[in-house]
Write a structure and sequence with these properties.
binds inosinic acid, alpha/beta, binds magnesium ion, 6-stranded mixed beta sheet
């Protein structure tokens, strides 16, 4: 794999800024859900790092579960609207206050499908918390209650987000220079 320094265009959100914003989101969620319990549903795999940091700042009782959906394969940078559930929840969402935790909302296709599916299972409520929002790319409208950062239309990686499955471990959000990135095939 390439050393990320070779294709890092710029650091868009440094680690310290992520920490501060994630804490703020956790505090906001804690206020909104005071006296209730939360079922946080993390969309694998990109949302994992955000979820684990976020729930450390949530006071009301919170359970977690995971769901995996595939919107596009390695080498492709856009979802085609054909979203498949590849791993389903093990918890019932019926009567739960569901909080979907996502890394990034781009076209909105992934989240729109997930919300549509979860609604059929009758949760008490359903809200979305996304770390990043690429609003200029939206194709389908999705209701976002909590958003960490609005970002420009650039492909980003780090802090859970991947480039062909790698670099999720980096503690910052970086912009990829797609001309310098060499896919490892
Ligand atoms: P959407 O269905 O187009 O909204 O795509 C959402 C999914 O695409 C996210 O959950 C990410 O996994 C992925 N994605 C979208 N933009 C980026 C990006 O800039 N970097 C890494 N993954 C991305
Ligand atoms: Mg991805």
């Amino acid at each position: 794999m390439q050393d990320y320094h070779k294709f890092l265009d710029e650091i868009l959100i440094p680690e310290a800024e992520l920490k501060t914003r994630v804490r703020e989101l956790g505090e906001e969620i804690s206020r909104d859900y005071a006296g209730k319990r939360i079922l946080a549903i993390c969309i694998l795999r990109g949302g994992v790092m955000f979820l684990t940091d976020l729930i450390r700042h949530i006071d009301p009782p919170v359970a977690i579960d995971f769901m995996s959906v595939s919107s596009y394969g390695v080498g492709s940078r856009e979802s085609d609207g054909q979203v498949r559930i590849t791993l389903d929840l093990t918890t019932s969402v019926s009567e739960e206050n569901v909080l979907i935790v996502e890394d990034i909302i781009d076209s909105g296709n992934t989240l729109a499908s997930v919300i549509e599916l979860l609604r059929t299972r009758h949760p008490a409520s359903i809200e979305v918390c996304t770390l990043l929002n690429k609003i200029s790319r939206r194709e389908v409208d999705v209701p976002i209650k909590y958003c960490g950062f609005e970002i420009p239309d650039k492909f980003v990686f780090g802090y859970g987000l991947d480039m062909d499955e790698y670099y999720r471990n980096l503690p910052f959000i970086g912009v990829v220079d797609l001309e310098k990135y060499e896919a490892d095939i």
